[in-house]
Amino acid sequence: MKLSLDASSSVPPFEQVRGRIIAQIDDGTLVAGTRLPPVRTLAGELDLAANTVARAYKELEEAGYVETRGRAGTFVKGADAAAARGAAAARTFAETARRLGLSSAEAIDLVRAALRED
After folding, report:
1. What pLDDT score was predicted for residue 81?
2. How far apart are CA 95 and CA 52, in angstroms?
3. Which CATH class is domain 13-78?
4. pTM greater than the 0.85 cutoff
5. Which of 20, 60, 82, 85 has the fewest Cβ atoms nearer than 10 Å?
6. Nearest to 73 by CA among 30, 40, 27, 29
7. Is the pLDDT of residue 112 over 80?
8. How would DSSP label each residue in 28-83?
9. CA of 71: how far to CAs of 43, 74, 84, 110, 114, in Å?
10. Mean predicted lDDT score pLDDT of the chain
11. Distance CA 57, CA 67 (A)
12. Which residues pair with 86 in a beta bridge?
């Protein structure tokens, strides 16, 4: 796995790490079962604090992209990852719809309309 960060970017380093790993998973560079480098190893390669990489890995796990298997390491998740990411996106949308004061019916109508836009 090869990652590079943009030191001049306004995007925080943990978000850059997370985003680049997601991009590699989405484009097939990182396939299911691929072991990610240990937190300290990747932090050293990127000249970051270990906590920065650990935060990126934690957020990737919460979003369903990877799973941590204790001392065995962190691995790219398999086929169920798409469903987990979809569920996370749905939760985010539902929270936004509530914040905007949309009814359930209005929110569902918006999703249906968006799905038809291909």
Report:
1. 62
2. 27
3. mainly alpha
4. no
5. 82
6. 40
7. yes
8. TSS-TTPBPPPHHHHHHHHT--HHHHHHHHHHHHHTTSEEE-GGG-EEE--THHHH
9. 17, 9, 23, 43, 42
10. 90
11. 9
12. none
Domain ranges (residues) in the chain: 13-78, 81-116
Distance CA 47, CA 40 (A): 10
| Proportion of the chain in helix, strand, coil states, percent, rounded to 5 | 60, 5, 35
Residue 61 exposed, middle or buried by CB count within 10 Å (0-12, 13-18, 19+): middle
- The amino acid present at 82, given as its one-letter code, is A
Q: State whether residue 20 is helix, strand or coil.
A: helix
* Among 71, 66, 1, 3, residue whose Cα is nearest residue 32: 66
Question: Which two three-digit tokens encode residue 84?
Answer: 């987990």
32/48 Cα distance (integer angstroms):
26
